[in-house]
């Protein structure tokens, strides 16, 4: 069984049973326009699938997992402890591209990862390795970009961080082998999905309050207008005979119910929060156009912890 390789805000490990419960008993191709950490995709292991995300570095990572798993593992094995001194044989061992002092090995690798947004150059394999290394050693496993697209999460504190993830990379590579991987706006699915296909939408959530926003996964963000566009896309897919399952925050209950989707509220615990004691259950909706009589009975496979 494949498992997610990356920690990712909004991951759906704890919601898999509820999502599977809305899946149709049979469907054509599987589409996931907001793949993120891929908890559902890797658990499902679909034989015919297309995944997409707006973050180009995330998509580049999945392409390298699919196409060069052993080379990626080899790069990851070469990294040092995040608290070690910067490597003088690598760039940015003294200061970043923006002239800031480099305090440790972690911050040197963060500066190397930010070559693409700050300098317009990158090596795809090295960038993929750096993404996983930073994901497993940064504060709280958080992915966040500033307005310029630079990854800006500080170092975390871990006793023995495992950034190589050999087994997960190899299993994920097998699942991704036949999948189409895209870096587009989510609306591409209007042209890609055929009647009878299944689309699962897991967008950056509409905030529960004015101060609850956490959609800085990429510099472009995901705003209220994007939420409206997504509702329009889901409605068009429904009219075209495409099966749709969607998760979002509880404040989106009425818009999807008013559009004719079957909507139910579920409790989900947030996987990423600066205070582990504050990772409480929050209202989350699951909306679908799949009638109860057309749904299957497949359940969640067990996922181990990170």
UniProtKB/TrEMBL annotation:
Picking any one GO molecular function of the record gives: site-specific DNA-methyltransferase (adenine-specific) activity
Q: Which stretches does the entry tag as region Disordered?
A: 287-306
The biological processes this protein is annotated with in GO are:
methylation
EC identifiers of the protein: 2.1.1.72
The chemistry this enzyme catalyses reads: a 2'-deoxyadenosine in DNA + S-adenosyl-L-methionine = an N(6)-methyl-2'-deoxyadenosine in DNA + S-adenosyl-L-homocysteine + H(+)
Which enzyme class?
transferase
Question: Which SUPFAM superfamilies does the entry link to?
Answer: S-adenosyl-L-methionine-dependent methyltransferases
Q: Which Pfam families match?
A: MethyltransfD12
The record's similarity note reads:
Belongs to the N(4)/N(6)-methyltransferase family.
The name of this protein is: site-specific DNA-methyltransferase (adenine-specific)
Native organism: Halorubrum yunnanense
């Amino acid at each position: 069984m494949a498992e997610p390789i990356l920690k990712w805000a909004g991951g759906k490990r704890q919601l898999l049973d509820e999502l599977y419960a809305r899946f149709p008993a049979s469907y054509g191709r599987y589409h996931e326009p907001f793949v993120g950490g891929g908890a559902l995709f890797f658990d499902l292991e679909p034989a015919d699938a297309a995944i997409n995300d707006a973050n180009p570095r995330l998509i580049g990572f999945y392409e390298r997992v699919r196409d060069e798993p052993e080379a990626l593992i080899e790069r990851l094995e070469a990294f040092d402890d995040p608290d070690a001194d910067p490597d003088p044989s690598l760039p940015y061992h003294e200061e970043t591209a923006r002239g800031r002092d480099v305090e440790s090995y972690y911050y040197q690798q963060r500066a190397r990862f930010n070559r693409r947004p700050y300098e317009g150059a990158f090596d795809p394999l090295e960038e993929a390795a750096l993404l996983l290394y930073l994901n497993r050693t940064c504060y709280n496993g958080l992915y966040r970009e500033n307005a310029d697209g630079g990854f800006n999460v500080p170092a975390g504190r871990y006793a023995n961080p495992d950034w190589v993830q050999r087994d997960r990379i190899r299993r994920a590579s097998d699942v991704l082998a036949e999948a189409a991987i895209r870096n587009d706006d989510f609306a591409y699915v209007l042209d890609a999905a055929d009647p009878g296909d299944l689309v699962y939408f897991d967008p950056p959530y509409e905030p529960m309050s004015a101060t609850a926003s956490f959609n800085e996964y990429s510099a472009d963000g995901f705003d209220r207008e994007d939420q409206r566009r997504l509702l329009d896309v889901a409605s068009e897919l429904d009219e075209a005979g495409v099966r749709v399952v969607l998760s979002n925050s509880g404040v989106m209950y009425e818009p999807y119910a008013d559009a004719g989707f079957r909507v139910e509220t579920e409790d989900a615990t947030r996987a990423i929060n600066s205070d582990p004691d504050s990772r409480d259950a929050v209202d989350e909706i699951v909306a679908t156009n799949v009638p109860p009589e057309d749904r299957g009975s497949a359940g969640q496979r067990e996922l181990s912890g990170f």
